[in-house]
Amino acid sequence: MTKALIIVDVQPTFCEGGELGVDGGNAVAERIAAYVDAHRDDYAYLATTQDWHIEPGAHWSDDPDYVDTWPRHGVAGTPNADLHPAVRALDIPHHFKKGQYSAAYSGFEGIEDDTERVQSREEFATLCESGATLAQALADAGVADVDVVGIAESHCVKETALDAVRLGYRVTVFEDLTVPVSEDLGVVARAQMAAAGIRLADSTATAVHTVHVEPLSADRYEQKADVQSRTWHELNEGRIPQEIVDAITPQFALELTRRHADDPSQTTLVAVDGDQVVGFIELLATPREPMDRPGAAELASLYVLADHHSRGIGRMLVEAGVRAADDGRLALWVAEFNGNAQGFYRRMGFRFTGVTQDEDFGRSLEMINY
């Protein structure tokens, strides 16, 4: 699997002593340098981004609100807009400069430029028209996974990671290789990234298992049933009638699992971390009434244990489900109260059809991916 590392805005302007210095910025720069030295060979593509402001309009202000307007920083052609010395010494091959004539929080708003030039508007427009963007570079490199590090977690790191997810990449942000403007803003940013399906991880973690998806086999029935019972309770406690929550006991889930496994019209795939099932997806070859979607399979169930969220496992299961469906067409019902699930499926390419149904636990909405 081809992986890219994006080092976002590690510049003196955002480190201690800079115009918008963040506490811990210099230490993050050093940790990033050490990480790249140790893991460079893990990546097929490495790039940096830099604020390279020339005339960014209202982004700069003499009376900044520190939300939408800021003091002058990242001034193109100045030492503080250069890469931090620890990162510059890494000889990263690709450099994307952003914000020449706009705010530009995301690295995907930049253009590849390995020079120190301060471009005129005309020169900048020509570079933009050339297609020298980060999105194009990742596509050309055949990248599937993107790791994001840098400064600041609450702003440009977050926006770069969110844009990478929107473009369909599996994204990890290493929390020990970034730092927010403030811890309060960091908490908000991490919640936003996790909700978008971004994996938040520690780059120093060593006991990491490779998660893979496989067809359900008899030796995993009990593990799958345990996941079904646990996730059902995690999701629905306090949200639907308690007698419906209590009905899905481990034993009942095991009986369901065995029954579904014996039904040739049903397909169950499980996500396995190490030797433990942590999630599953169930497909029906023919959707149940009242769903009327000829040629589509029904995505009947998708569950991942709560302590394994934000690792891209749900995405892996849906992608495997699409491959398992005869022509990749899936339809599903999603509970109206479950906004997180609705957002996840939208990011996976599903859309609402406008069809609804009322169930014992409330209204469900129909979504399809075609």
Summarize the structure.
This protein has 370 residues and is of the alpha/beta class.
- Strand percentage, roughly? 15-25%
Provide the structure class: alpha/beta
Element order: H for helix, E for strand:
EHEHEEHHEHEHEEHHHEEEHEHEE
Mean pLDDT: 91
Radius of gyration: 23 Å
Percent range of helical residues: 25-40%
| Intertermini distance | 26 Å
CATH-level-4 superfamily name of the largest domain = Isochorismatase-like
Number of E strands: 14
Uncertain spans, ≥5 residues at pLDDT below 50? none
| CATH-scheme architecture of the largest domain | 3-Layer(aba) Sandwich
Shape: elongated
- Count of all domains: 2
CATH topology (level 3) name of the largest domain: Rossmann fold
What would you say this structure looks like, in words?
The two termini are 26 Å apart. The protein folds into 2 domains: 3-201, Isochorismatase-like (Rossmann fold, 3-Layer(aba) Sandwich); 211-368, Aminopeptidase, CATH 3.40.630.30. The mean pLDDT is 91. Helices cover 32% and strands 25% of the residues. It is an alpha/beta fold and 370 residues long.
Secondary structure layout:
Elements: E1 3-8, H1 25-39, E2 45-51, H2 85-88, E3 94-98, E4 111-112, H3 121-129, H4 134-140, E5 145-151, H5 153-166, E6 170-179, H6 183-195, E7 199-201, E8 211-215, H7 221-236, H8 242-247, H9 250-261, E9 266-273, E10 276-284, E11 297-304, H10 313-324, E12 330-335, H11 339-347, E13 351-359, E14 362-368
Parallel strand pairs: 1-2, 1-5, 2-3, 5-6, 6-7, 11-12
Antiparallel strand pairs: 3-4, 8-9, 9-10, 10-11, 12-14, 13-14
Descriptors:
about 375 residues; alpha/beta; Rossmann fold; Aminopeptidase; 2 domains; seven-stranded mixed beta sheet; 14 strands; about 25% strand; elongated
